[in-house]
Structure formats: C-alpha cells, structure tokens
C-alpha cells in the first residue's frame, strides 16, 4: 500500500477513537464517579443496591 493511504486510514482511526472516547467513555466515567459520591460505595456495591440479584462481594 502507499504511504499516504496508510496515514489516511490511521488518521481516520484516530478520529473514530477520539469520538468514541468523548461520546461513550467519558460520560460513563462521569456517571460512575457521581454515583460513587452519592452512594459512598464502589461500582460493585452500587450494583448490589440498585440490582439486588447481582449481589456478591459488593455487599460487604
């Protein structure tokens, strides 16, 4: 393949990766931090409160 095509494809990957991070990962982390501050527990403990069927070590 030609070099310009490889650079173009890798550039498109970086754009797609950045959009994925901004639109999905950052809001999920924000919600997790806010729920942790509200419930004073980690993510497993929060699931144990909100969805009791998923209880496990998060109960401790």
Layout of helices and strands:
Elements: H1 3-39, H2 43-50
Outline of this structure?
The protein contains two helices and no strands. It has 60 residues and is an all-alpha fold.
**Number of strand elements:** 0
Largest sheet: none
State which percent range the strand residues make up: under 5%
Provide the residue-averaged pLDDT: 80
Kindly report the oligomeric state of this protein.
single chain
* Number of separate helices: 2
Instruction: Please give the radius of gyration in angstroms.
Output: 19 Å
Q: Runs with pLDDT <50, length 5+? A: none
What is the H/E order? HH
- Secondary-structure-based class equals mainly alpha
Helix content: over 70%
- N-end to C-end Cα span: 56 Å
* Backbone shape: elongated
Description:
It is a single chain. The protein has 60 residues and is an all-alpha fold. It has a domain at 21-60. Helices cover 75% and strands 0% of the residues. The chain has helices spanning 3-39, 43-50. The longest helix has 37 residues, at 3-39. The radius of gyration is 19 Å and the shape is elongated. The mean pLDDT is 80.
List keywords for this structure.
single chain; 60 residues; mainly alpha; 2 helices; membrane; SNS_sf
């Amino acid at each position: 393949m030609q070099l310009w095509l490889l650079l173009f494809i890798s550039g498109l990957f970086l754009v797609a990766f950045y959009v994925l991070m901004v639109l999905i990962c950052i809001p999920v982390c924000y919600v997790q931090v806010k729920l942790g501050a509200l419930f004073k527990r980690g993510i497993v403990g929060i699931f144990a409160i909100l969805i009791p069927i998923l209880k496990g070590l998060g109960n401790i």
